[in-house]
Amino acid sequence: MIKPFYLDLSEQEIELIQAELGNILRSGQLILAKHTETFENEFARYVGTQYAVSLNSCTSGLQALLMLKGAKHRKVAVPTNTNFASVAAILREGGIPIFMDMNPNYFVPDLEILQYTHEKHPDIIGVVWVHIGGIITPDFFEIAEYCRTNNLFLIEDAAHAHGSMLNNVKAGNFGDGGVFSFFPTKVMTTIEGGIVTTNSLEEAELIRSIRNQGKRKGNYGGLHYDLGNSWRMSEIEAYIGLIQLAKLDQMIAHRAMAVNNIIPILEKLNIDYCSIKHMTQASLYKFIIKFKNGCTASEIKTKFSEENIILGGAVYNVPCHKQPVFENLSFEPADLFISDKYCPQHICLPIHSGTTDEDIDSLILAVKKHII
């Protein structure tokens, strides 16, 4: 059976983690110690930013950045085609989400969509931009420049985009801060966790304080300076992150090998997909295949399951403006018609760093049988 999730840890790596867990427990330093610091430094080096600050989740990182950017009671643009967390973080910080539509070629907004949203809502103060499936839109340098020119903050929700690059610049190093997820299904994992990347020392120090109950530079003690939270990553999670980060490019390369074998078949069969050919490197967290009217995603998932292929989550079959939890948020349907059309009409093939040659053959056969 082909499954959408693969935990890329060898037996040797598992033994290392087990041994280090014992060392951590014996040390008594379970949080904010050497592994956390090393992981943050190594992740910042990988992305190319000056600083990185780990937290318990990507959602917490988004909220922390929104707090620093003054999103409370202010409008913040965000794609409707994203995970619940991108919108929830704005709401939890007291902001007002303004939904953006998407370009069907990449399943993310583009500069034209951002300009339209800004013209319609000139009082937005910033953007939470989501690199869906690890795709960085081809015009993202122009988008970053537009935000700078118009005094809009640009937060990159890079939950899917570990290692994604456009013109050799990595996701998380384009705007005013990036946030990554290390949830178990992501390209790399710490089991649970997230990290903020930034080039601002002041903001890095404030996020370290916010994640630790507002204690500023003192990790411990009874003085609280900021209205923070308990958003810390554990030492064992940071150690797992170091093991995963060391082979991140290798894991991405394996995904790319699988996708590069499938793309020529799709093109030969005239099956539409979201291209990543413009990118230096794509994380390929999700490889998006679009299908035409006449079939539903649930029907295709059923057909694939009959071939012993489990299709995991899409990106996303139900856009946020249609989620029950956000039913009180205002929007104009005409502004989101592309998302309404394409979100229900796509699947994501179960491709990961454990995909075998036999899996690729099975996926190609299933695509030919059920997508054409």
Plain-language structure description:
This protein is an alpha/beta fold and 372 residues long. The chain folds into two domains: 11-246, Type I PLP-dependent aspartate aminotransferase-like (Major domain) (Aspartate Aminotransferase, domain 2); 249-370, Aspartate Aminotransferase, domain 1. Helix content is 38%, strand content 13%. The protein has twelve helices and eleven strands. A seven-stranded mixed beta sheet has the order 1-9-8-5-4-2-3, with helices on both faces. The chain has a two-stranded antiparallel ribbon with strand order 6-7. The protein starts with 10 loop residues before the first helix and ends with a helix.
Keywords for this structure?
single chain, 372 residues, alpha/beta, Aspartate Aminotransferase, domain 2, Aspartate Aminotransferase, domain 1, 7-stranded mixed beta sheet, two-stranded antiparallel ribbon, 12 helices, 11 strands, 13% strand
Q: Total domains, how many?
A: 2
Helix content: 25-40%
Q: Helical region count?
A: 12
Question: N-to-C terminal Cα separation, in Å?
Answer: 22 Å
Q: Which stretches are low in confidence, meaning pLDDT under 50 for 5 or more residues running? A: none
CATH architecture of the largest domain: 3-Layer(aba) Sandwich
Give the number of DSSP strands.
11
Order of helices and strands: HHEHEHEHEHEEEEEHHHEHHEH
Radius of gyration: 21 Å
Judged by helices, strands and strand pairing, the structural class is alpha/beta
